[in-house]
Structure formats: structure tokens, C-alpha cells
Write a structure and sequence with these properties.
Blueprint lengths: L1 H24 L6 H7 L4 H13 L3 H14 L6 H13 L6 H14 L6 H13 L10 H16 L4 H31 L4 H14 L6 H14 L3 H14 L6 H17 L19
Helix pairs in contact: 2-4, 3-4, 4-5, 5-6, 6-7, 7-8, 7-9, 8-9, 9-10, 10-11, 11-12, 12-13
Length: 288
């Protein structure tokens, strides 16, 4: 008989615990979704509350209210504003990431491409990448993406007030990409023999692709030096002459004058007579 009691002991304990939990648990707590579905609260009231929380910078709480509308009232006329507010709540929340914000802005643009606020969403989508731009010596994937999305904004919404803002941001993107190209080109230049072709390609790419967004004094000088190393004398002289005519006070002028003098000797004697010095000035790359 004792054995029977012992065998039933664990079962009786579990049954008692379950009854105790049921008795203490009470009624299920009513959620925002329950109240919305019962009609005790409207989507407008939820949105107003979320907006108030957003304005107080309580972004996590604001998203909680907004997500209820997005999930349980997908046919609401407020849905576009809800989705845009969710995206903004990530963008302006310092504890969130711009990747999260970009996903939400992209979702808005996918669902509401012709909405009156789609130009704003496109601008903010581009800004998600613009804010992630790295220094000139780092990868420029975010810069290129930001540039592309700002261009998309101007193409799709040319009269939007955000298009003017995008133009300024595009200039900054181009400047950073030009800085990056110079940094890489200068690196190849400093590597010396065997890397001149790569340096030439990068430096010419700046001139061809970033008009008005690069430092011509520095770019022309190092391109000319690279071309001279490759014995492309006539092409190098074009850039040396440009420097001599337009940057007469440049720190590069001793080197420029040396090359111009040697060019005359090359034309007369058919050979390079040698240079004053093999050294070239070292540039602080953060002053592009």
C-alpha cells in the first residue's frame, strides 16, 4: 500500500501544482490587439498614442503601438503613415541600426510607390547609406549606394524639395569616392616599380569620372609623375604644363620645373639627362 502511495506521489504533486497555477493566474491580460479587434480602441487612437511616444523619443514603445496597427489592421487608411513612422522610429533611434531603418523605408516604397510621401521615404532610404559612409581609405560600398539612391530620387521626383537636398549629398558622395580613388592611386604610386600602370588607371579615373570633385593640383602632379616613370613623356608634359600655368605657387613646382627642363633635353638629345632628385613630396592624404 505504501508503494502505491509513493508511485502516485509525483502525479498528485503535478496535479496540485497545475491547479494552483490556474487558481492564481486569473483572467488573461487584455492586449492592445484584443482591444483593437473588440472595437474598444480605434486605429486613429493607437496612431495618435504612438505619435506622442515618438515625439517623446520613446521609439521602442511607439513601434509597439504602430506594429499592432500594421499587423491587425492592414486595411487601415493609416497604414502608409504607420509604416513610414516605423521606419522613422528606427532611423532616429540611436539604439537601432540604419540597416533596420533601410528595410522599413524600402518596404514603404515597395507598397506605396506613388504615395505623396514617397519622395521623403526615398530620401531617407538614401540617407541610411549616406550616414554609413566610411573614411576615404575604407570600402566605399555605402557611398556608392547612397549616390545611386539619391540619383534615383532626383530621377523619380525631380520637383521634390528633397531633390535639392539630394543634389548636395550627391556632391559629397562624389567627393568621397574621388578621395578614395586618389588614396588607392597614391598607394600604388608609392609602391613604385610594377605598380605604375595601376596608379595611372586610378588617377586617370578620377579626372574622367569626378569632374569638379577632386583636387587637380595633387591629382595632375601624381599622374604626371606616374606617366613620366612609364616614359610617356608627352602625356606627362601636358599635366606638368597645366600645373605650371595654373598653380605657379605650388609646392610641386621645383619638381615640375625639373621635368620641363629635362623634356627640352629629351627633345634635343633623345634621352633623359637625369633628374635633380629622385624624391617626391610626401602628401598628408587627409588634405585631399
Amino acid at each position: 500500500m505504501l508503494n502505491s502511495i509513493y508511485r502516485r506521489g509525483p502525479l498528485l504533486f503535478l496535479l496540485g501544482a497545475a491547479l494552483l497555477i490556474t487558481a492564481c493566474g486569473g483572467p488573461k491580460k487584455e492586449t492592445l490587439a484584443d482591444r483593437l479587434q473588440k472595437g474598444d480602441v480605434t486605429t486613429q487612437e493607437l496612431f495618435n498614442r504612438a505619435t506622442t511616444l515618438f515625439q517623446k523619443r520613446k521609439f521602442v514603445d511607439a513601434r509597439r503601438w504602430l506594429r499592432v496597427i500594421e499587423t491587425y489592421a492592414p486595411d487601415s487608411k493609416l497604414l502608409p503613415d504607420v509604416k513610414l513612422s516605423i521606419a522613422d522610429s528606427y532611423f532616429f533611434d540611436k539604439m537601432a541600426t540604419y540597416i533596420e531603418a533601410s528595410v522599413e523605408y524600402k518596404s514603404f516604397l515597395t507598397h506605396f510607390p506613388t504615395h505623396p510621401k514617397s519622395d521623403y521615404a526615398q530620401y531617407q532610404y538614401a540617407m541610411c547609406f549616406f550616414t554609413e559612409i566610411e573614411s576615404a581609405d575604407r570600402d566605399q560600398t555605402s557611398t556608392l549606394t547612397a549616390y545611386t539612391e539619391f540619383k534615383n530620387l532626383i530621377d523619380r521626383y525631380p520637383v521634390s524639395p528633397y531633390a535639392e537636398k539630394a543634389k548636395d549629398k550627391i556632391d559629397l558622395c562624389l567627393l568621397r569616392m574621388a578621395e578614395h580613388e586618389f588614396t588607392v592611386g597614391y598607394y600604388y604610386f608609392r609602391r613604385g616599380r610594377g605598380f605604375e600602370k595601376s596608379a595611372e588607371s586610378r588617377l586617370k579615373g578620377i579626372i574622367n569620372n569626378y569632374e569638379g570633385q577632386y583636387d587637380p593640383e595633387k591629382t595632375y602632379f601624381y599622374l604626371a609623375e606616374t606617366l613620366w616613370r612609364r616614359e610617356k613623356y608627352k602625356e606627362a608634359i601636358f599635366y606638368y604644363n597645366n600645373l605650371a600655368n595654373n598653380f605657379a605657387d605650388s609646392d610641386y613646382m621645383p619638381f615640375v620645373q625639373d621635368k620641363l627642363t629635362r623634356w627640352q633635353r629629351i627633345k634635343e638629345e633623345g634621352r633623359d639627362p637625369g633628374e635633380i632628385t629622385d624624391a617626391v613630396p610626401t602628401d598628408p592624404l587627409n588634405t585631399f
